[in-house]
Design goal:
The chain is an all-alpha fold and 119 residues long. Helices cover 98% and strands 0% of the residues. 0% of the residues are buried.
Length: 119
């Protein structure tokens, strides 16, 4: 009976140690799970931050591209206007030159007629 009582006492101690160990393991497992959840939350927040930064960079790039396209369009329009103006100026210069040549010929013809008349 004494041996049986000692064995029961040992069994109770072993069961208690086992229960304490199981409880400790359960607490550690919950701690690990909580740490992992927190790590996942931090990682998700970091990814969201990275995505937000990338979106801002894309918006900045879009704005820059829109401004560049606007500047190029303005430059092309200015260039077109310059070309039209140059073409008009060239045309005016050609007309002036032709007019000057015609006037010179007419003056030469008039001078020749006057010389013939005097002679």
């Amino acid at each position: 009976a004494k041996e049986k009582g000692e064995r029961e006492e040992e069994d109770k101690e072993v069961h208690q140690e086992l229960a304490d160990t199981m409880k400790s393991l359960g607490q550690r497992a919950r701690g690990v799970v909580e740490e992992r959840k927190e790590g996942d939350k931090r990682e998700a927040a970091k990814r969201a931050s990275d995505v937000n930064e990338a979106n801002l960079a894309l918006k900045d790039t879009d704005t820059t591209l829109e401004a560049t396209v606007g500047n190029l369009t303005d430059a092309r329009e200015d260039g077109d206007a310059t070309l039209k103006s140059a073409a008009t100026n060239r045309s005016d210069a050609v007309q002036s030159l032709l007019s000057a040549e015609r006037n010179q010929r007419e003056k030469g013809d008039e001078d020749a007629r006057q010389a013939d008349t005097k002679a």
